[in-house]
Design a protein that fits this description.
Blueprint (H helix, E strand, L loop, with lengths): L7 E6 L3 H12 L4 E7 L2 H10 L4 E5 L7 H11 L4 E6 L4 H9 L4 E4 L4 H12 L10 H4 L1 H4 L6 H8 L3 H11 L4 H8 L3 H15 L4 H10 L5
Parallel strand pairs: 1-2, 1-3, 3-4, 4-5
Helix pairs in contact: 2-3, 3-4, 9-11, 9-12, 10-11
Length: about 220
């Protein structure tokens, strides 16, 4: 059963019918993705994910009854293997932050190109973080006021090595394992092992949280 043959099963969650239907038409045109269901709010999405195997949820943030923030939390608690990709606008930075804290794998802006949408779904399905480089620094403004990056203090407090800090920085810059391995002249396997160690040392769940950690601690600006 080759993974290449299996389509990525997704559901689309948006309270506006036109957007749901439009996204379904666009996404159904990608040969490797299957749209299973359209939902109007986070609770419908949670119930569908609870009863069916869903790979990726494309989730709007602002919806009546149950918004994307709560929807993400419910889905990740009951279906931890289901990835949530938030569809949003620049204005929603507070909600984006809460969604990421609740376990979303990242977000795309609603005006993204079809190619970005396709790439984003594939990327979160493969376990990567999808973060719009222009938006993340805005999310972290409050934390950036605290203090500048103190490398020695972080190394002391977390036991992170220089190499691990370099890898954290590249993850936050949106690089894939292969790109990081090329840049740091290490094998991809070494990068994967290092990321496992980083997650363990920082008690984080995934690459998205590593990227957020990097911005919060001013490892990247």
């Amino acid at each position: 059963m080759g993974d290449n043959m299996e389509k990525i099963r997704i559901i689309i969650v948006d309270d506006e019918k036109l957007i749901r239907e439009g996204l379904k038409i666009i996404i159904s045109s990608f040969g490797d993705i299957e749209v299973l269901e359209l939902c109007q709010n986070g609770r419908e999405a949670f119930e569908y994910c609870r009863d069916n195997k869903v790979d990726v949820v494309l989730m709007d943030i602002r919806m009546p009854e149950c918004d994307g923030v709560l929807g993400t939390k419910l889905i990740k608690e009951s279906s931890p293997n289901t990835k949530v990709l938030i569809l949003t606008t620049f204005q929603d930075s507070e909600y984006i932050q809460q969604s990421l804290n609740n376990g979303a794998s990242g977000y795309l802006l609603k005006n993204s190109s079809y190619g970005s949408l396709h790439e984003g779904i594939r990327s979160v399905h493969n376990g990567n973080a999808v973060i719009h480089s222009e938006v993340l620094p805005r999310l972290m403004v409050k934390d950036n006021e605290k203090e500048s990056f103190d490398k020695e203090k972080i190394k002391h407090d977390t036991t992170l090595t220089d190499r691990e800090l370099n890898i954290i920085e590249e993850i936050a810059n949106g690089l894939s394992n292969k790109e990081i391995s090329d840049k740091l002249f290490l094998t991809e396997g070494t990068i994967k092992n290092n990321i496992t160690i980083i997650l363990s040392k920082l008690n984080l769940r995934d690459r998205t949280q590593i990227a957020i950690y990097a911005f919060k601690n001013n490892i990247v600006k």
